[in-house]
Design a protein that fits this description.
The protein has about 650 residues and is α+β, with helices and mostly antiparallel strands. The protein has 21 helices and 14 strands.
Length: about 650
């Protein structure tokens, strides 16, 4: 629970639940979709009605706050767009392009809506009520749903718990970068006892004996580097000296000195933009890490959703194969009972072969169920599921069977505002742009202004404390000022770094363009796949109905054949083949159902609204330090013009401000 509260994730449409916004009363009313009952007598869906819904409705897709929600939802349920700061303007041209996308929904395929006597399709099937019940493959059962499994994976999966540590690691890097501007306190002390031979009269004033000297020196103070590049130093020095020289007056003596030193860069390393670059890059790394974590979480949750629907599909196939086996067994028993009357030995052998083959298929279906359950246990990491690995998991959530209208235009705009790869590429443009700005500053020569002042004190009898008092009461402060100029001959390294950073900026802009184009393409494909999956589901249901009619016809023909002759053997072959085809169509329908359910997940992932990740705050860095100590992007560099992003051309002198 603590981990869940820390990352504060909010799932969006992990399952197949999709809702459509209700039309405003003042606008044209969208035709209401026929309601499909989950239990009881299935309500047929008219193909003509579905076609009318697709063609007339232009309501944009809405994202529910929970995968379990089946109620109508407002547009407020879509998470707020990712903030790109001053670089948000780079998306303006792409948003304008997205607004030009045709918003009319694609109709159901003409072959699907072909008019025929069986144009009314019911999407309910005989295995639907049986899927929620136990199949008898384990003594105990547990109900699961895709939304609950996703929440469990976030709370319990070791993989997710591991990747959620990445933002915290990056946040500490940000604290480390900002700590470069912390004040440094230091204390230093040294005592020296010297005994040297005298080699000059200037050492002690005479040539007898040895030079003996006892000196104690100490210093303490503060050093600090400012965000503008200023280096400030405050030092209090103190000590005493006692020797046998006649030149030391007074002897012994105590000395102190209070110094203030300031160094201010005037060209190279000048300004907040240059000195705060590490803080800015660390902050961008935190944002990129959050985007990467969100992308990894989305991928994992898509895997959880796919594993859930794989379990649903495996259970449905087990029921279908069980019915197929039961039909073959029933046919074999009837033939054996009629063996002494009108059944041929070849008919009985053919039915027995079908029973054996279908029983083998059923064994494989049961194995697939157990494999799907094992995959869910791995992906969720739920201790309860791990302890109940021999239980039977019952999927309680069924795929969506309603046709829902989509707005390609709105989905694309939402993707531009919420996709993590676009946000990450913009952050990289921001980071490389900042690097170009700093590299341009490093090309300049070093010109530093150096200022210093100090007061000094002196007292007798090694009285350091007396000297400390005298430094403020005797004499006046001393001052010094100067300039330091430095420039490498040729300056090749700085010029090479600038050129390298400009190429990196060019590369990052092309990567941003690729990310934006990928968003357009993936949303277009996802919307089309969602339409196609529903069309395919309708077509597969029509194929099931047609196969059912063929099986019923062949079964009645075999049962009511007046005279047993050789054609009865062919009828058995045709009946068994028709049953196989019917089961194949039923399996294809379930695959289409699962594809339709997963298409919603993929659509929301392509829109960037599958998951909203509210990262934890930046621990250890005060708000005022973040605001004052970090670089405002506009202080460091001008955002790249949208036309330059679109064309890939960069005029670096205009792109980056000094």
């Amino acid at each position: 629970m603590k981990l869940r509260n820390c990352c504060k994730p909010l799932l969006f449409a992990i399952g197949s639940m999709v809702v459509v916004a209700t039309a405003h009363p003042s606008t044209a009313q969208t035709p209401q979709q026929p309601e499909i009952q989950r239990t009881g007598t299935p309500q047929p869906i008219s193909i003509a009605t579905l076609q009318k819904v697709w063609e007339t409705s232009s309501t944009p897709i809405m994202v529910p706050p929970s995968s379990l929600s089946r109620s109508m939802s407002s547009f407020d349920d879509i998470p707020p767009p990712i903030s790109h700061g001053p670089f948000d303007g780079q998306l303006h041209s792409y948003r304008a392009r997205a607004y030009g996308i045709p918003d009319s929904p694609e109709p159901i395929d003409a072959q699907v809506i072909e008019q025929n006597p069986y144009s009314v399709v019911s999407l309910e099937n005989w295995w639907d009520p049986l899927l929620a019940g136990p199949l008898g493959i384990a003594p105990q059962t547990m109900q699961v749903d895709v939304g609950g499994l996703a929440q469990t994976a976030i709370a319990s999966s070791p993989y997710i718990r591991g990747i959620l540590t990445q933002p915290h690691i990056r946040q500490n890097d940000l604290v480390i970068a900002d700590a470069n501007f912390d004040t440094l306190a230091f204390v230093e002390g040294k005592f020296a006892d010297t005994s040297d031979p005298i080699g000059s009269l200037l050492t002690t004033g005479n040539a007898f004996g040895r030079y003996r000297d006892q000196t104690f020196s100490s210093s303490m103070g503060l050093r600090k580097k400012g965000h503008a590049g200023t280096q400030f130093e405050l030092i209090q020095r103190g000590g005493f000296q006692d020797n046998n020289s006649t030149f030391l007056v007074p002897n012994p003596q105590g000395t102190t000195r209070l110094e203030v030193n300031v160094t201010q860069p005037l060209m190279k390393d000048r300004g907040r933009a240059v000195n705060d670059i590490r803080v800015l890059l660390a902050r961008i790394d935190v944002q990129i890490a959050t985007s990467e974590v969100r992308s990894s979480l989305e991928s994992h949750l898509v895997d959880v959703s796919a594993a859930y629907w794989n379990l649903y599909q495996s259970r449905a196939q087990w029921l279908q194969r069980s019915r197929l086996l039961a039909n073959a067994s029933e046919l074999s028993e009837i033939l054996r009972a009629r063996g002494e009357v009108d059944a041929f030995k070849r008919q009985i052998l053919r039915a027995d072969a079908a029973v054996a083959s279908r029983r083998a298929d059923l064994v494989r279906s049961e194995t697939e169920i157990r494999n799907a359950q094992a995959q869910l246990r791995l992906l969720t990491g739920d201790p309860q599921l791990l302890q109940t690995n021999r239980w039977e998991l019952l999927p309680s959530e069924r795929p969506l069977v309603e046709a829902v209208t989509l707005s390609t235009r709105q989905a694309t705009i939402t993707a531009l505002d919420n996709r993590t790869d676009i946000a990450e590429s913009i952050r990289k443009v921001q980071a490389t742009s900042a690097g170009v700005g700093v590299a341009k500053n490093q090309v300049l020569p070093r010109l530093d202004l150096i200022l210093s002042t100090y007061v000094a004190g002196l007292d007798t009898n090694s009285n350091t404390f007396g000297a400390f008092e005298n430094q403020f009461s005797t004499g006046r402060p001393s001052f010094a000022a100067g300039l330091l100029f430095e420039r490498p001959v040729g300056n090749r390294a700085a010029e090479a770094r600038l050129n390298r950073n400009r190429w990196e900026l060019t590369r990052s802009i092309f990567e941003f363009q690729q990310a934006a184009e990928t968003a357009f393409t993936e949303v277009e494909v996802a919307v089309r796949e969602t339409h196609t999956a529903f069309n395919e589901m309708i077509a597969k249901k029509q194929a099931i109905d047609a196969a059912n009619r063929e099986v019923d016809y062949l079964k009645q023909r075999w049962q009511w054949l007046p005279d047993p002759n050789e054609s009865a053997v062919l009828l058995i072959e045709d009946l068994l083949d028709a049953q196989e085809r019917l089961t194949d169509e039923e399996e294809s329908f379930v695959r289409a159902q699962v594809a339709y359910a997963l298409s919603w997940v993929q659509l929301r992932r392509s829109m960037g609204v599958l998951l909203r990740f509210d990262g934890a705050g930046i621990n250890g860095v005060p708000d005022e330090a973040i605001q004052d100590g970090m670089i405002a992007e506009e202080l460091l560099c001008d955002p790249v013009d949208s036309s330059e992003l679109e064309s890939g051309e960069i005029v670096s002198d205009e792109v980056i401000s000094q």
